[in-house]
Write a structure and sequence with these properties.
The protein is an alpha+beta fold. The protein folds into two domains: 1-32; 36-200, Cyclophilin, CATH 2.40.100.10. Helices cover 22% and strands 30% of the residues. A hairpin with a 2-residue loop joins strand 1 (39-44) and strand 2 (47-53).
Length: 202
């Protein structure tokens, strides 16, 4: 029976190793899943971006983002608004520019003290401060004009930062774009978020 248990354990280890090799976002499974700040890996058609979430500063926003990631909502969505030296925005449209249905909007947490600096991730919204749903953007440079100033100038809620893959963000920001009905800066070739997976902190 001890030998059987040992073989079962070895077989399980082999399966875990195989799964890690099959997924770029899961390549360090044991290490990534250690307790700590929550991280989400975006596997895109241009490379891997890992985002560390700041749950302490933006609990509502982080919970919202994790919900969409765990539900697979972001899988197959695109970066539909790409403006170099500003930001790259995605998480709301499919490749054929159909808007995906979302959960209700969340409260704006932009007054949490986090700044829209290069490499941070924030929620996109309409003119209503409390209108953010699924769409997010990654700042390509320090965007002071997007920060919270007062209730009259509510800003955009930062809820994390890129800890791996800023070179990928730079590559995305450099692609050629075109103006279409739903975006003034849609990449000529779709930049797809192939998967969004929680890789630590769970």
């Amino acid at each position: 029976m001890k030998e059987f248990a040992m073989y079962n354990k070895l077989g399980l280890c082999a399966l875990v190793a195989m799964a890690a090799l099959m997924s770029g976002c899961s390549k360090d499974v044991g290490k990534d899943m250690e307790a700590g700040p929550k991280k989400v890996c975006l596997e895109t058609s241009m490379g891997r971006i890992v985002i560390e979430l700041n749950e302490q500063a933006a609990p509502v926003t982080v919970k919202n983002f994790l919900t969409y990631a765990k539900e697979g909502f972001y899988n197959g969505t695109i970066f539909h608004r790409v403006i170099p030296n500003f930001m790259i925005q995605g998480g709301g449209f499919t490749v054929d520019m159909n808007r995906k249905p979302t959960h209700p909007a969340i409260v704006n947490e932009a007054s949490n003290g986090l700044k829209n600096d290069r490499g941070t991730i924030a929620m996109a919204r309409t003119g209503d401060p409390d209108s953010a749903t699924a769409q997010f953007f990654i700042n390509h440079k320090n965007n002071d004009s997007l920060n919270y100033i007062s209730p009259a100038k509510p800003g955009y809620a930062v809820f994390g930062n890129v800890v791996e893959g800023m070179d990928v963000v730079d590559k995305i920001a450099s692609v050629r774009t075109k103006r279409v009905r739903m975006s003034e800066a849609l990449p000529l070739e779709p930049i797809v978020i192939e998967s969004a997976k929680v890789v630590s902190g769970e």
